[in-house]
Design a protein that fits this description.
With 203 residues, the chain is of the alpha+beta class. It has 4 helices and 13 strands. A 6-stranded mixed β-sheet has the order 2-1-10-4-5-7, covered by helices on one side. Strands 9-8-12-13 form a 4-stranded antiparallel β-sheet, with no helix packed on it. The chain starts with a strand and ends with a strand. The structure holds zinc ion.
Length: 203
């Protein structure tokens, strides 16, 4: 199982990190060892002083596909979930400044919270899904899939031109504005609409 992550998919988050707006989706991968085990706390790694939360809608791939075309994209996923793409921002900035790959800052062990999933059929409109992240009871990120630069079906088509998508693979669809540092003792709760999708304690 692989995690395909999309960077810079929300204009307001591109602005907050002073990044350039991309002309194509930015893609990176996390290995299966990045998934934080259910109910486990997130332990801040000792190689970073500045780990950020990035709350993201997740597409769960339902069957194998390659070079998927737009008219068939909806057949390749049945479930939508919510998670966190933890990012060692200090390390990522160093790597970006040197023009090096981001993996150490993005793909480290337990860097991906994968919360609950909901059937796609629960949503009247996939392009209007509100989601949010609370840190210690305060909303810190508030997004909606309507604000994604590339929509879910476009991401399925685009990523499948490079990587064969397999059943169980996850696509993290990018984060809206409001990313920020996590500290030991924080409690992070993710919501789709008003529904709690995960609770993660930071230690
Ligand atoms: Zn992200």
């Amino acid at each position: 199982m692989k995690l395909i992550c999309i960077g810079r998919n929300y204009a307001d988050h591109i602005t907050e990190l002073a990044n350039q707006r991309p002309t194509e989706p930015v893609i990176f991968l996390k290995p299966d060892t990045a998934v934080l085990n259910d109910e486990s706390p997130f332990v801040i790694p000792d190689f970073s002083e500045n780990v950020h939360h990035e709350v993201e809608l997740i597409i769960k791939i339902g069957k194998t596909g390659k070079h998927i075309t737009p008219e068939f994209a909806s057949q390749y996923f049945d479930e939508i979930g919510l998670g966190i793409d933890f990012t060692a921002r200090d390390l990522q900035d160093q790597l970006k400044n040197k023009g090096l790959p981001w993996e150490k800052s993005k793909a480290f062990d337990s860097s991906a919270v994968v919360g609950d999933f909901l059937p796609k059929s629960n949503f009247a409109d996939l392009n209007n899904i509100p989601f949010s992240l609370q840190k210690n009871g305060e909303t810190v990120q508030d997004g909606n899939s309507s604000l994604m630069l590339w929509k879910m079906e476009e991401l399925i088509c685009y990523t499948s031109t490079f990587f064969t998508l397999k059943k169980g693979d996850l696509i993290f669809t990018g984060t809206p504005a409001g990313v920020g540092k996590v500290d030991a003792g924080d409690v992070l709760k993710g919501f789709i609409n008003e529904q709690l999708m995960f609770t993660t304690k930071v230690i």
